Amino acid sequence: xxxxxxxxxxxxxxxxxxxxxxxxxxxxxxxxxxxxxxxxxxxxxxxxxxxxxxxxxxxxxxxxxxxxxxxxxxxxxxxxxxxxxxxxxxxxxxxxxxxxxxxxxxxxxxxxxxxxxxxxxxxxxxxxxxxxxxxxxxxxxxxxxxxxxxxxxxxxxxxxxxxxxxxxxxxxxxxxxxxxxxxxxxxxxxxxxxxxxxxxxxxxxxxxxxxxxxxxxxxxxxxxxxxxxxxxxxxxxxxxxxxxxxxx
Amino acid sequence: xxxxxxxxxxxxxxxxxxxxxxxxxxxxxxxxxxxxxxxxxxxxxxxxxxxxxxxxxxxxxxxxxxxxxxxxxxxxxxxxxxxxxxxxxxxxxxxxxxxxxxxxxxxxxxxxxxxxxxxxxxxxxxxxxxxxxxxxxxxxxxxxxxxxxxxxxxxxxxxxxxxxxxxxxxxxxxxxxxxxxxxxxxxxxxxxxxxxxxxxxxxxxxxxxxxxxxxxxxxxxxxxxxxxxxxxxxxxxxxxxxxxxxxxxxxxxxxxxxxxxxxxxxxxxxxxxxxxxxxxxxxxxxxxxxxxxxxxxxxxxxxxxxxxxxxxxxxxxxxxxxxxx
Lengths: 248, 325
Ligand code: SF4
Ligand code: SF4
Ligand code: SF4
Ligand code: SF4
Ligand code: FES
Ligand code: FES
Ligand SMILES: [Zn+2]
Ligand SMILES: [Zn+2]
Description:
The complex is a heterodimer of chains A (about 250) and B (about 325).
Chain A: E1 2-6, E2 9-13, H1 19-25, E3 49-52, E4 59-62, E5 73-75, H2 79-95, H3 100-108, H4 128-136, E6 143-145, E7 152-154, H5 169-173, H6 193-196, H7 224-227, H8 240-245
Chain B: H1 3-6, H2 8-11, H3 30-35, H4 50-59, H5 66-78, H6 83-93, H7 97-106, E1 118-123, H8 126-130, H9 133-144, E2 157-162, E3 174-176, E4 179-181, H10 189-198, H11 201-209, E5 216-217, E6 226-232, E7 235-244, E8 247-253, E9 262-264, E10 275-277, E11 298-303, E12 308-312, E13 320-323
Parallel strand pairs in B: 1-2
Antiparallel strand pairs in B: 1-3, 3-4, 5-11, 6-7, 7-8, 7-10, 8-9, 11-12, 12-13
Helix pairs in contact in B: 4-5, 4-6, 5-6, 6-7
The structure holds iron/sulfur cluster (SF4) (4 copies), FE2/S2 (inorganic) cluster (2 copies) and zinc ion (2 copies).
């Protein structure tokens, strides 16, 4: 057992427990974005920062990846932590404002403005989908490609993956994904078509940027051909079944 | 869906079915068109045989971290990473395609597209930049009528811009197929292109015959590597710092061009790839290219009197290059 101090409360936990787990267990909320129970911690979003140590040596660490240490002093909502969280949320809003998940987090943390250059990314590189696919679905159909600014998520060679199980797990966990099944205008996108099974993308102009990895979509049965008309090789009169076979 | 329906897409398909998948004639092949299905033996075949590829892959085994070595070797042999090479690597090593594709797209030295006959890198690193490398790069782009990152229509050149080749003292630097050109300016561009076409290896052949001592220095800080205290082959040796596995120590090379005498603090097992460091500025001495024989990175040193010497970093591999500039 390890004894540590969280927000002034002395607690004992099993070795190997992360600070996030300890804090949540004892009722101290910490917001997370790239963390999910059942998936290995990844530390990508930095939203779960907490402050450890004291005085000038105090520092911010991501609680989802930091293991509990004997005698550690942890603060989960010090002024510094709150400030850092807010900036991170502002940055997330700047890159992916259409995400319902990010919007909710921002509003819960009282973010009233966003001072950075506005972008409309369809991915925040949280890696949830990749871990879901690998660790829960045992498929390893999608992964990170490239690096730096040009890093993306997808299947090798951008063709339909032979090992994808069409389980939809990747879409289910994606915090940015609502964008993908919504209107042609990223600004107005929030609908959660995948979740409520009445995807509005069917009635509207196909949204070119839709990029979920399922071919065809299990919710709306949109196929590659209609999602990306300019690259789809779909011929007239084929059913969805054939489209599965058709490589993009 | 049968193969005929899928058409050409199937022939390009991942599993590298038959020879056609990697055949250079694939797009224009009349023979194939009339048959509609890929061949398994063909006299006209020109490209990468799956069996040859399998040989390369198996040589490295599936040990952890072996993927980079495999990809380097494949790329050294074919100039790029063909799609089915990645598939085959996944198949034979048991690693997932996603991981291999991730590695292949992560490193800039790997290319998933066929590259031109000659690989031309123009350095835009800080030192070269301040000496006008931008103009040099532009001149190359105009003369070759190609944008950086692309291959010319005649498949002769692939042009790249890079950030520091570790030869700042020679800048602006351009490298063609591993041969360094120093102090390049816009007016030299044309002759570099011409020389590359007529063959840069001609220089090698001449210098290879004779045995003569070279004085080398660090391409980064220009401090001499020569160690007059310790003679090798009767001449001052070239002293650098070598690192491999968890070992870190000195390494002395013979300065006689054509001699392969080596001494090192720790014995270096054959086939180990060694990282070389400058004993003065501690920068890694790395070349811009990989060994054409074994795929290991080449190590570049400045030769006094003008020139660039490159040696293979793999213990036991005798590949080297010498450019007079
Ligand atoms: S749908 Fe395919 S890519 Fe997505 S998690 Fe399932 S197996 Fe992986
Ligand atoms: S696609 Fe979605 S789940 Fe996957 S990394 Fe991007 S934001 Fe995260
Ligand atoms: S195509 Fe289907 S799963 Fe994909 S984003 Fe749209 S509704 Fe969601
Ligand atoms: S030349 Fe032979 S190997 Fe090449 S595409 Fe034609 S049939 Fe196939
Ligand atoms: S939840 Fe810890 S870094 Fe994302
Ligand atoms: S900046 Fe060009 S070689 Fe270093
Ligand atoms: Zn140096
Ligand atoms: Zn070699």
